[in-house]
Amino acid sequence: MTRPLEDYALLGDGRTAALVSRDGSIDWLCWPRFDGDACFAALLGGPENGCWTLSPADTVISHSRRYRDDTLIVETDFEVSGGVARVIDFMPVGGEPSSLVRIVVGLSGVVKMHSQLRLRFDYGALVPLAVSTGDTVHARVGQHQVVLRAEVHLMQKADCVQVAFEVVSGSRVRFVMTHGEADAPLPETPDAERALVDTQHYWQDWIARFDNRRTAWPAMARRSLLTLHALTFHSSGAIIAAPTTSLPEARAGQLNWDYRYCWLRDTSFAVVALLNAGFHDEARAWRDWLLRAIAGSAEHIRVMYRVDGSRHLPEWTADWLDGYRYARPVRIGNAAAAQRQIDVLGEVLDSLDIARRAGLPVETK
């Protein structure tokens, strides 16, 4: 993939995250959680490694993109010769199971749209067995099943799902894709419009706890805090370093690491930021996760953990992926988990002391 990284916007639901490009392609998504199996891996390869495109069929004259105020809901406006359409992308927070929602809204004129879904689990390697029944596609592979429901006819062609439709001023076309375990009942997809309202309220209510008087740059602070919360595994309180793996530190180099884990050093700094911003509940959740993760003797403390607190992160390479802008290898897992980095202990102790002095009750269990 050659798109600039700054062309991507982050979507998240507190369990996992997706990256959507300016031109409407979702090129990265792991399910069921941040460190899970990528079903869209075009970011580290090409479209054949999994992506979901949704954009006008005609030449785009101009486009613009923004987050809805104080949310992780992305709105992208496309202008073509026939009119203007908006694509709304988000992941509902708190619902079960995890879903990805895309809503196309006609703003003016008539806009022809097209979409292509390529599901590729195992980091772009496995094509699922898919069955299409009109407006629904059910796909299964390994331990995964995915249901896509739409308000237009879905065409199963070879190893992808294609759809063509048009929107006029005021019309809306909704797509909902939901993940489930393969041996579980068919996952129920949420109502797209209800989920949009609930998701907007969730993010706005959460960031409303921040007092703008704490900083001279409230807009930047609020967006940073929202991003930090999106990188938090809500059920445990763990904070990951990044939602991606193997984005290179240097062009076409080999410094390509998997950052979908919780580094004690990095998150200790993040927790101090949360405390300074007044988010004590989130800081307490991280502190409680930390104490569970590092339970045992001090000599066994790792530098990083999975979001559930487990410590085994065996590293391997996905050799079928070309890497972002041909930076290889693509690494899954992180061998640095077994390194001994003694500064980590001091930084963790320092953050725990700051939490104590900030008023967090001492954990006595």
List strands and helices in order, with pairings:
Blueprint: E1 8-12, E2 17-21, E3 25-31, E4 37-40, E5 51-56, E6 62-67, E7 74-80, E8 83-90, E9 99-118, H1 121-124, E10 129-132, E11 136-141, E12 144-150, E13 155-157, E14 160-168, E15 172-181, H2 192-207, H3 218-230, E16 232-233, E17 238-239, E18 262-263, H4 264-277, H5 280-293, E19 304-305, E20 316-317, E21 331-332, H6 343-357
Antiparallel strand pairs: 1-2, 2-3, 3-4, 3-5, 5-9, 6-7, 7-8, 8-9, 9-14, 9-15, 10-11, 11-12, 12-15, 13-14, 16-17, 18-19, 20-21
Helix pairs in contact: 4-5, 4-6
Could you characterize what this model shows?
By secondary structure, the protein is α+β, with helices and mostly antiparallel strands. The chain folds into 2 domains: 5-195, Glycoside hydrolase, family 65, N-terminal domain (Beta-galactosidase, Chain A, domain 5); 207-357, no CATH class. Helix content is 21%, strand content 33%. It has helices at 121-124, 192-207, 218-230, 264-277, 280-293, 343-357; strands spanning 8-12, 17-21, 25-31, 37-40, 51-56, 62-67, 74-80, 83-90, 99-118, 129-132, 136-141, 144-150, 155-157, 160-168, 172-181, 232-233, 238-239, 262-263, 304-305, 316-317, 331-332. It has a 15-stranded antiparallel β-sheet that branches. Strands 16-17 form a two-stranded antiparallel ribbon. A two-stranded antiparallel ribbon has the order 18-19. A hairpin with a 2-residue loop joins β11 (136-141) and β12. α4 (264-277) runs parallel beside α6. The longest helix has 16 residues, at 192-207. The protein is globular.
